[in-house]
Amino acid sequence: QLQLVESGGGLVQPGGSLRLSCVVSGFTLDANYIAWFRQAPGKEREGVSCMSRISGITNYADSVKGRFTISRDNAKNTVYLQMNSLKPEDTAVYYCAAQRFGPCTLSINRFGSWGQGTQVTVSS
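Predicted structure:
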């Protein structure tokens, strides 16, 4: 069974930075692709970024390109989301999710395993 645990959320001022972590444990073959999603109050969950843990291929939503960076440390079974130049509209619960097969997509329906989420609040 696959488990995903997010951490690193918190309160940050506009323009600030946070780094989220997603630790993968269990049957990690089902986690060849890891994506970050977010859900703001009253809004649908949306894809933020995806990475192949094997090839390193990445994919980003237009709203975060140039500000967010996804990376991995396979020795630690961890995927990170570095978030810079944060804006109030980035406020949401951030989730990591896993799928076994590609492509690296931001489509929610492709992901079968999810973490519990971590809250990110951008406010002055």
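Summary: The first strand starts at residue 2 and ends at 7.
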